Amino acid sequence: MIHILVGTNRKDSRSAELAEIIRPLYEAQGQAIKIMNVGDVGLEELNNESYGEGQKPAKLQAAVEELLTSDGLVVICPEYNGSMPGALKYFIDHWKYPDSFEFRPVAFIGLGGMFGGLRPVEHLQQVFGYRNSFIYPERVFLHNVWGILKEGQIDHDMNNQLLEKQAQGFCRFIKALKSENLHAAGQSHPK
User: Which of 169, 167, 80, 60 is closest to 123 using CA atoms?
Assistant: First the structure.
């Protein structure tokens, strides 16, 4: 299963809208898809004792455990103040290490204004790279998202083509890693 992570907790976000747009692109590749929204993982229940070995709220714990079953993760990240939304980083900070990250294939889609979410995606690549995830190199950046994302559709042919190409390539990437027994969900790591 591939998880699509909506990287903001903003209500009715464009990121959530985009997740629904790309879902059929992955389903067309024969993939089971689950959309996970940062706004639905229970961040509001966290306190200072939730970091580290402290007990995590049940809703958050269930979301973290769900990610452990993922064959691949597509992160949709809007740009907030030159980086990723704080809610996304806060969620990531509660994932299990190394299980959530190591050998997990990850693809990124950025969205924003002039730079299309380039900065937050680069920051996320640093985090996931540091934690030994397999980063799919073909990122997609949706520039001027307010002008091209309308009524559940992307009104820009090149962006639609890039998203479809990414979905096809990321599915092949996951399959290739699995063929060599290099995948997080299989818990079969090289020695």
Answer: 80
DSSP conformational letter for 56: P
Q: Beta partners for 35?
A: 4
Residue extents of the structural domains in the chain: 2-179
Q: Give the position of tokens 């200072």.
A: 48
Determine if the pTM surpasses 0.85: yes
* CATH classification (class only), 2-179: alpha beta
Helix, strand and coil content of the chain, in percent to the nearest 5, comes to 40, 20, 40
Tens-binned pLDDT, residue by residue, of the chain (191 aa): 999 999 999 999 999 999 999 999 999 999 999 999 999 999 988 876 666 666 788 999 999 999 999 999 999 999 999 999 999 999 999 998 889 999 999 999 999 998 999 999 999 999 999 999 999 999 999 999 999 998 889 999 999 999 999 999 999 999 999 999 987 865 554 44
